[in-house]
Design goal:
Number of domains: 2
Family: Belongs to the class-III pyridoxal-phosphate-dependent aminotransferase family.
CATH superfamily of the largest domain: Type I PLP-dependent aspartate aminotransferase-like (Major domain)
GO cellular component, one term: cytosol
Number of strands: 15
CATH architecture of the largest domain: 3-Layer(aba) Sandwich
Keywords: Aminotransferase, Pyridoxal phosphate, Transferase
InterPro entries: Aminotrans_3 (IPR005814), PyrdxlP-dep_Trfase (IPR015424), PyrdxlP-dep_Trfase_major (IPR015421), PyrdxlP-dep_Trfase_small (IPR015422)
Helix content: 40-55%
Strand order of the largest sheet: 4-10-9-8-7-5-6
Mean pLDDT: 97
Bound molecules: pyridoxal-5'-phosphate
GO molecular function: pyridoxal phosphate binding; transaminase activity
Number of helices: 17
Length: 454
């Protein structure tokens, strides 16, 4: 048995963490999360935290689901692994694909598996370029994405994403990917410009990029229905219909990244359904297994699938763990739980609206809060110095970090990104859990304001 101190020392000596300043980690030591149950996580010292992030936007059915452990155990005993290369398969990815085709928008009937959202976006990028090559248009390979987008951490994921810091460290992105403005009215709308007009203008930046490159050179547009890691940026209602119109007009494929929004978060199975988007590919991962196993599923629309199948020839792409039987067994059980407990419907009709109301009535009026926003159980609180002028506290991000630290000290795990405080809780949250979160966040805001305005 190791003490916390020992574990922290070993961790700092041997374990490189994702998205972490290792010098800071060495000085502070990591928090060891050792147990979790329902909506709560517990650290090694027994501290209980309400998990406002569902792990990393993924534990939609909450913690402690022994049914998922049993599904994995049964599958491991029977058939722990076999691949789906070379015209083989195991049964669970077959059955999961059928289930996903039933849940997905109606133009989607095929699935390609990986182990992570990043891998799945690599697959999507390769697949759309392969599609145009099969269609005899190999030059139609440019992808349009957005600044502040997050599409994962592999080379292709980083290149598709629009995070400056990540691009700088990459030192050379995958070619032929361009980034246009994000649809975030609070920050980018012009004086006097309403949300509707701003949404159209943001969408038309995609049209401008298509015209600049020439439509004959543009393969696809990729976007998260709601930008997640970029700060839960919710586009105006006018945005997605205009994007759809532009993609159709120029015969540009529409790729959605629903790694966060998939499987109930927005109050529908997919945000494509919430926003009425017809996509050619939908990248999903995370909540597909509620994070209990690593698994991603790229949902592929009929247009691309028909070409891929009918033209024949091999698509030279795949992962050892594509369609992993254990991960797929867990996904099937996870989707069964979401359905059985009516979690998607509950987010749509009950907890989603109640969450929005809590943010508006209890949080929005606070002196540090410029804006609150949410769809379903995904929301953000924008931290400002001055509500009227939207002036930020400098340096960027420092205020949100202060609020986050007070939140954690008061039993509320949430995330800070830029000046946004982010919430993406398990879908098992009830009205009582939402009230508890509201109280803890308000307390954190008060304490942070006291420090910041000293
Ligand atoms: N796409 C989006 C929208 C994400 O939020 C993430 C991860 O947070 C990814 C892709 C990458 O997924 P993964 O971390 O599983 O590779």
């Amino acid at each position: 048995n190791y003490s916390l101190k020992q574990l922290q020392q070993i961790d700092a000596a041997h374990h490189l963490h994702p998205f972490t300043d290792h010098k800071e980690l060495r000085d502070i030591g990591s928090r060891m999360i050792t147990r979790a149950e329902g909506p709560f996580i517990y650290d090694s010292e027994g501290t209980e935290l309400l998990d406002g992030m569902a792990g990393l936007w993924c534990v939609n059915v909450g913690y402690g689901r022994t049914e998922l452990a049993e599904a994995a155990y049964e599958q491991m005993k029977e058939m722990p692994y076999y691949n789906s290369f070379f015209k083989c398969s195991t049964p669970t990815p077959v059955l999961l694909s059928k289930k996903l085709a039933e849940l997905a928008p109606k133009n989607i009937n095929q699935v390609f598996y990986g182990s992570s959202g990043s891998e799945s976006n690599d697959t999507a990028l390769r697949l759309v370029r392969h599609y145009w090559a099969l269609e005899g248009k190999p030059q139609k390979n440019r992808i349009i994405s957005r600044k502040m987008a997050y599409h994962g951490s592999t080379v292709a994921g980083t290149s598709l994403g629009g995070m400056d810091g990540m691009h700088q460290q990459l030192g050379g992105a995958v070619p032929n990917i361009v980034h246009v403005m994000m649809p975030y009215a609070y920050e980018l709308a012009l004086p006097g410009e309403n949300d509707h007009d701003f949404g159209l203008r943001a969408a038309r930046s995609v049209e401008d990029a298509i015209l600049e490159a020439g439509a004959e050179n543009v393969a696809a547009f990729i976007g998260e229905p709601i930008m997640g890691a970029g700060g839960v940026k919710i586009p105006p209602e006018s945005y997605w219909p205009e994007i759809q119109r532009i993609c159709r007009k120029y015969d540009v494929l529409l790729m959605l990244d629903e790694v966060i929004t998939g499987y109930g978060r927005t109050g529908e199975w997919f945000a494509a359904q919430t926003f009425g988007i017809e996509a050619d590919t939908i990248t999903t991962a995370k909540a597909l297994t509620s994070g209990y196993q690593p698994l991603s599923a790229l949902l592929v629309g009929d247009r691309i699938a028909a070409t891929l199948v009918d033209k024949g020839g091999e698509f030279y792409h795949g992962y050892t763990y594509s369609g992993h039987p254990v991960a797929c067994a867990v996904a099937l059980k996870n989707l069964e739980i979401i359905e059985r407990e009516g979690l998607v419907e509950r987010v749509k009709t009950d907890t989603g609206p109640y969450f929005a109301q809590m943010l508006k009535e209890r949080i929005a009026g606070h002196g540090l809060v410029g804006e609150v926003r949410s769809v379903g159980l995904m929301g953000a609180i924008e931290i400002v110095k001055d509500k009227a002028t939207k002036e930020r506290i400098s340096p960027v991000g420092s205020a949100a970090v202060a609020v986050r630290d007070h939140a954690i000290a008061n039993g509320m795990m949430m995330r800070a990104t830029g000046d946004s405080m982010i919430l993406s809780p398990p879908l098992i949250w009830t009205r009582a859990t939402i009230d508890m979160a509201g109280e803890r966040i308000l307390k954190a805001l008060d304490l942070a304001e006291r420090d910041l305005r000293k």
